[in-house]
UniProtKB/TrEMBL annotation:
UniProt protein name: SET domain-containing protein
Record's signal peptide: none
Pfam families (alphabetical): SET
Region (Disordered): 153-193
Family matches, as InterPro entries: KMT5A, SET_dom, SET_dom_sf
One Gene Ontology cellular component: nucleus
Domain (SET): residue spans on this chain: 24-145
Coiled coil feature spans: none
GO BP: regulation of DNA damage response, signal transduction by p53 class mediator; regulation of transcription by RNA polymerase II
SUPFAM superfamilies in the record: SET domain (SSF82199)
Gene Ontology molecular function, alphabetical: histone H4K20 methyltransferase activity
Length: 208
């Protein structure tokens, strides 16, 4: 397996944050009707390496609360709330803009990346860093935080029909949006307590 030259993760993150684009070596793949899409490594990544920014619109607490009231639950999951310099902020990634960070799925048991703050020119950015070596073909995941996320329930997982990737052809973007909406409705019905966006306590500042 060919290894790339080790780049300083902070410099790397700053480069991609400033450029507003995603790194090569990562791809979107359709997983299943239940999980939707996910992000997969196409090249190896080393522990500690910067992978992706969770890009979106940085908004304050008031605007976040307003949008939480207006958005359908299928969009609310793209709102990442966090605390920075003593205030609540949110990165709203509801818009389908082709960026990869917004499509990284949750794994609270064995994630391979961790979300951290990264401050560029005084503004917070949410960046994913590898917490172990990652091989090509692995799905990129992080822990969305302690919450009763509906898909974490084993019962719900078993209830959902899971087609194998060989027999299931990838749907169009319109179909994905429709599937996500119905999936969220189903998840809502099966869980009393749903937290609609990733939580604050999983975040640490880069370098700590
Ligand atoms: C930020 S989006 C991630 C991208 C999403 N899979 C998609 O195709 O748009 C979060 C949503 O993905 C799904 N999701 C994330 N992690 C999951 C998991 N471990 N199992 C099942 N669904 C998951 C849930 O529907 C969740 O509301």
């Amino acid at each position: 397996m060919q290894r790339r030259r080790r780049i300083n993760p902070k410099e790397d993150a700053k480069f991609y944050v400033t450029a507003g684009r995603d790194k090569a070596g990562l791809d979107i793949q359709y997983i299943s009707a239940f999980k939707g899409r996910g992000i997969f490594a196409t090249t190896p990544f080393e522990k500690g390496e910067f992978l992706l920014e969770y890009r979106g619109e940085l908004i304050n607490k008031q605007e976040c609360e307003k949008r939480q009231r207006l958005y359908h639950s299928s969009l609310k999951v793209f709102m990442f709330e966090f605390r920075f310099n003593g205030k609540l902020w949110c990165v709203d990634a509801a818009k389908e803009d082709g960026s990869l960070g917004r499509l990284v799925n949750d794994d609270h048991i064995n994630p391979n990346t961790k979300m951290k703050y990264f401050s560029v020119q005084g503004k917070p950015h949410l960046c994913l860093f590898a917490i172990r070596d990652i091989s090509p073909g692995e799905e990129i995941t992080y822990n969305y935080g302690d919450s009763d996320w509906p898909w974490r329930s084993k019962d719900l997982d078993e209830e959902m029909p899971q087609k194998s990737p060989e027999t299931e052809s990838p749907p169009s973007t319109k179909e994905v949006v429709e599937q996500l909406s119905s999936m969220h409705d189903l998840q809502k019905k099966t869980s009393e307590k749903i937290q609609t966006s990733p939580v604050l306590d999983v975040l640490t500042v880069v370098g700590k």
